[in-house]
Design goal:
CATH class of the largest domain: Alpha Beta
Radius of gyration: 21 Å
CATH superfamily of the largest domain: 1, 4-beta cellobiohydrolase
Number of helices: 9
Structural class: alpha/beta
Oligomer: single chain
Helix content: 25-40%
Number of strands: 15
Strand order of the largest sheet: 1-2-3-4-5-6-7
Largest sheet: 7 strands, parallel
Length: about 425
């Protein structure tokens, strides 16, 4: 699960802490507001340099125009404070929430495709201190060291203890500087919730705000949310309460499976970044791994690859439209001359639902054919798909999907969902 390796500075910042962090509501966790979208990213630079490429529109609209985490992965003590301060200032001016991912721990990725980081833990602490100075007390969401807790196979018992101490110190240092800090929980197909809870406890999650999961991976949001609930319960049983989850949804809108996405064309971008999760245990869905950046299998880790970005973009995915206690997101999964195939993901809100109905309007020349995973009716240009008996009841945050074949021009319908 190698995250991107590139020079990147991200601080999730808002000028006023009260505007960013709330005490939590029934519809979301402890974050509010919109995420900061940096203008100068690898995806945006590629789009600007390739205006006539056939892939440009899709990459621009579905990836470059979305906010994604900005990584601090280049260990440079001379420039890091100014870099962070500049970014935090830009975010505060925009009134948005940028996301800072720190990726500089020694022995990161256990020497794999994203190897690098600080030469030792003392230097690492100096680096963290400079980042904290750059934050200067401004509210900041921080994704602290992907893989650092879930991936320990290359470390001895003494090295694990030293890393835990370093992460604990980093969390406290960054929180004192205004940080909202989340620690590494791996993902739902890796360590068990019980094992990961033990590791998080040892790494000082009691002094952090929560944990993140699915970074650089492809597991569904529903699976990650279920894993998060189990992990929160495991932490609670150890006397560590009040922790919440962040889920990386940058690449979990298609196939799951092996962590490396450099050669897999079945992967898609997932839920757009948002703090409106509809789940009090989940603070945000964030694109931690910027879509289009390689894992290190076929291409250099962290390098932007337009073919990967275009494959992940697939077809436009409209943001969830909340109505009642469910939301729906549309994605075109394939298209051909005269027709296309679409897929809709239904997500329950903060309360369980017994059923759902999704509605959208056909454009000129479109008609719906076969539908699977739901029961369709059409009235004029309005299509309504209701759940089957086996996929209508959803727990809070759980998802169901249906698909359909259609004739006519491809479009991106504004799908809406109501609970039945």
């Amino acid at each position: 699960m190698s995250p991107p390796t590139r020079l990147a500075v991200v601080a999730t910042v808002l000028a006023c802490a009260g505007a960013l962090f709330t005490t939590g509501t029934a519809s979301a966790g402890t974050l509010t507001g919109d995420f900061y979208r940096e203008a100068d990213t690898p995806a945006a630079r590629w789009v600007a340099a390739n205006p006539d490429d056939s892939r440009t529109a899709a990459i621009r609209d579905r990836i470059a125009n979305q906010p994604a985490s900005h990584w601090l992965s280049n260990f440079n003590l001379a420039t890091i404070e100014a870099e962070v301060s500049s970014y935090v200032g830009a975010a505060a001016t925009a009134g948005k929430l940028p996301v800072l991912t720190l990726y500089g721990i020694p022995n990161r990725d256990c020497g794999g495709a994203s190897a690098g980081g600080a030469p030792d833990l003392a230097a690492y602490q100096n680096w963290v201190n400079l980042i904290a100075r750059g934050l200067a007390g401004r509210s900041t969401v921080i994704i602290l060291e992907p893989d650092s807790i879930a991936l320990l196979t290359c470390l001895s018992a003494n090295e694990i203890a030293a890393r835990n101490q370093a992460l604990h110190t980093a969390a406290r240092t960054l929180r004192a500087a205004g940080g909202k800090v989340y620690l590494d929980a791996g993902h739902s197909s890796w360590n068990s919730a019980s094992e990961q809870a033990n590791r998080l406890a040892a790494a000082g999650i009691a002094d952090a705000d929560g944990f993140y999961s699915n970074v650089s991976n492809f597991n569904s949001t529903a699976n990650e949310a279920a894993f998060g609930r189990n992990l929160i319960a495991a932490l609670n049983s150890r006397g560590i309460t009040g922790k919440r989850q962040v889920i990386d949804t940058s690449r979990n809108g298609g196939a799951a499976g092996d962590w490396c996405g450099d050669d897999n064309t079945d992967r898609r971008i997932g839920q757009a970044p948002t703090t409106a999760t509809g789940d009090a245990d989940i603070d945000a869905y964030i694109w931690v791994k910027p879509p289009g950046e390689a894992d290190g299998c076929r291409y250099a880790a962290g390098s932007f690859q337009p073919d990967l970005a275009f494959s992940l973009a697939g077809s436009p995915s409209s943001p969830p439209e909340e109505s009642g206690s469910c939301a729906a997101t549309y994605q075109t999964t394939s298209a051909w001359n005269g027709g296309f195939q679409g897929q809709v993901t239904v997500t329950a809100g903060s309360a369980a639902i017994a059923g759902w109905r999704v509605t959208w309007t056909l454009t000129g020349g479109q008609s719906i054919g076969q539908v699977w995973g739901g029961r369709a009716t059409t009235s004029g240009t309005t299509v309504t798909v209701a759940n089957e008996s086996w996929n209508g009841a959803l727990r809070p945050g759980a998802t169901a999907q249906f698909g359909f074949g259609a004739t006519g021009p491809v479009s991106t319908p504004a799908v809406t969902c109501v609970s039945a």
